[in-house]
Amino acid sequence: MTQINDSLNWRYATKAYNTNKKLTEDQVNTLIESIRLSPSSYGLQPYKVIDVETPEIREKLKAAAWNQTQITDASQLLVFAVPTDLSDQHVDTFIENVSKTRVVTVESLKEYSDMIKGPINSRTPDQRKEWSAKQAYIALGILLKTAADMQVDSTPMEGFDSVQFDDILGLKEKNLTSVVACTLGYRSEDDIYAKLTKVRVSKDDLIIKI
């Protein structure tokens, strides 16, 4: 059990990456698979993950992220994006996947489908984007924990201009908008933040027992 907490205590929001040390293909696949296996409300997973590998695009994104060097220096850059038009079609696609995966008819899933569509359709477009973003953040949390267990450094990032990110990545044409990013790789020996003691509230201040 202590290994779990040791991993969480080891990780921190990496500020400087070792540009010469890259993740292996197997490591990247494991990290991405952790996102794919992440829980989400209804299992709908209303988000996409853009794996940005092109150096020229990363340079543009860095400018849109107030020149934070993690964008270009980390081994991997993942951008989480959510639909701007979450609708019944997304649910229908999900239901078809459930039908195929579990070898049941779409018709037998109608009650489940209606249960999902009701709450989604009761929300405004902005509320749907906010709800989808919350699901993406669950996946981000799973990714950060998986990376820590693998001794891979990570940096969750909200500090960027999402309008510029959307333009650079061509997300508007895909009816998507960026909500959060995460860089992954290995910390630089020059990153002073790696040596700082983690600051968190005490358990007594965090937990309210009723």
String of helices and strands: HHEHHEHHHEHEH
- Share of helical residues: 40-55%
Mean pLDDT: 97
Strand content: 5-15%
Amino- and carboxy-terminal Cα gap: 26 Å
The total domain count is: 1
Give the full name of the CATH homologous superfamily: NADH Oxidase
Unreliable stretches (pLDDT < 50, length at least 5) are none
* Cα shape: globular
Structural class from helices and strands? alpha+beta
Mind describing the biggest β-sheet?
4 strands, antiparallel
Count of alpha/pi helices: 9
Q: What would CATH call the class?
A: Alpha Beta
By CATH, the architecture is named 3-Layer(aba) Sandwich
Number of strands: 4
CATH fold-level name: NADH Oxidase
What does this structure look like?
This protein has about 210 residues and is an alpha+beta fold. The protein has a single domain (about 1-85, about 120-205), classed as 3-Layer(aba) Sandwich (NADH Oxidase). Helix 2 crosses helix 7 (about 125-150) and helix 5 (about 90-100) packs antiparallel against helix 6. Helix content is about 45%, strand content about 15%. The chain has helices at about 1-10, 25-35, 55-65, 70-75, 90-100, 110-120, 125-150, 160-170, 205; strands at about 50, 75-85, 155, 175-185. The chain has a 4-stranded antiparallel β-sheet, sandwiched between helices. The mean pLDDT is about 95. The protein starts with a helix and ends with a helix. The chain is built from 9 helices and 4 strands; from the N terminus they run ααβααβαααβαβα.
Note the main attributes of this structure.
210 residues; alpha+beta; NADH Oxidase; 4 strands
